[in-house]
Amino acid sequence: MPITKEALELAIKAVEESIARIDRGVLLFGSLVAIGVTGETILGVRHWIKDGQLRDLRSIESHMHENETLSLQGKIADANARAKGAEALVASADAASRDAVAKVATAEARIKEAEARAAEAKLELEKFKMPRTIGLVGQERMVKALEVFPGTPFDLTVGSDSESVDLMRIVQSVLVRAGWKQVAADGAIGLSNSNPLIGITLSSGILLSSA
In Å, how far from its chain's centre is CA 44? Predict the structure, then answer.
């Protein structure tokens, strides 16, 4: 069926209007795409910037952690050094204490030794202060030793103190018992009531002379 002019114009108009709508859609979506690309670019740049800032902050944080770790390690090392120093001081104090105990023990031993020596010296001094004498057993031994020389003449000289006189009487008795013969001592002064004469000396002790 042949198309009329009016129908053709209407069809052209309809197609033109459809194309115009399509063009408007293309323009609209193109604008939206441009906006999206621009927004993506802006956001991408901001993301890159923020990511760089985050990396910087992470680096600072890492350095802070490293510094804190080094500081803690230094403090730990210092604490260990101080602990070792304290242990050394304690060990030194223990050694000094043991040395002091040993010195005290040595001093106590020396004191006891000195006290023992002092006691011995005191005993010897007491013995020295005791009157000199000859015991009965000693006297008998002297008699037996001297009686092999009977008739031997002797004289005596004695100090004026009582200890010397007492010792002289013992010696005189031993000699007489051994058979020795007493004679007068030289000199004009002698022990009173002595016969034969017994001489006197200014020093302590006795003098025995035999011919």
Answer: 75
